[in-house]
Amino acid sequence: MLCLPAVKALYSETMNALDVLFRTSRFNLSRVGEHFINPCCFGEDLAAWLRPKLAEKNVETAKPYQEDWGWELPATCGAGSYYLCMSGNADNSGSNEGEWRIIVEKRRSIWERLTGRGKIAADDTLARAVEEILAKEPTITNVHREE
Questions:
Q1: Beta partners for 121?
Q2: Which terminus of the chain has a lower count of CB atoms within 10 Å, N or C?
Q3: Residues with Cβ within 8 Å of residue 33, at least 6 apart in sequence
Q4: pLDDT-above-90 percentage for the chain
Q5: How confident is the model over 99-128, as a mean pLDDT?
Q6: Which of 2-6, 37-41, 48-52 is least confident?
Q7: Nearest CA-CA partner of 22 in 56, 52, 63, 50
Q8: Residues sharing a CB contact under 8 Å with residue 81, sequence separation 6 or more, in sequence order
């Protein structure tokens, strides 16, 4: 069983992504759903909450789906295609208080990879939109990027 931090460590060299971290007790980190692939597959309610907020910023999203480490939300922002990969870790067992991570991964074609084009920029529009949405929510704190 791999949770999101382990996945991030395995693929950090190849991912075209920015990591947005934050703290909250707003989303489920304590109740393992019967439909969870693994007991760390939290993020379903975060994806459901984020979708309409992204739509308000003209970001198109597809239906989120579960991975073995959390949830993934495909998104399109302008001409860019992305995956928003989300999962959280509780501070204590049985608590919803904890740290969440949203990996904003920009998809690239094989040609873009070969030519070094299409890399995600520090001022990426979707990453900034995600940060703005999170920062405006009173129950969410410490929104920052992992460098």
A1: none
A2: C
A3: 41, 44
A4: 82
A5: 94
A6: 2-6
A7: 50
A8: 74, 75, 106, 107
Identity at 74, one-letter amino acid code: P
Whether the CB-CB separation of 104 and 18 falls below 8 Å is answered with yes
Is the Cβ–Cβ distance between 130 and 143 less than 8 Å? no
Q: Global pTM?
A: 0.88
Distance CA(29)–CA(43), nearest Å, equals 8
Q: Which residues have C-beta within 8 Å of that of residue 114, sequence separation ≥ 6?
A: none
Element (H, E) at 120: none
Containing 5, the helix (H) or strand (E) segment is helix 4-11
Mean pLDDT of 55-81: 96
Instruction: Please tell me the least confidently modeled range out of 10-24, 86-100, 107-121.
Output: 10-24
Q: What is the mean pLDDT of residues 69-94?
A: 95
Instruction: List Cα–Cα distances, 108 to 94, 101, 111, 127, in angstroms.
Output: 39, 22, 8, 16
Written as six digits, the tokens of 95 are 């608590």
For residue 39, what pLDDT band results from cuts at 50, 70 and 90? Answer: confident
Placement of tokens 């060299």 in the chain: 13
Domain holding 45, by residue range, is: 4-146
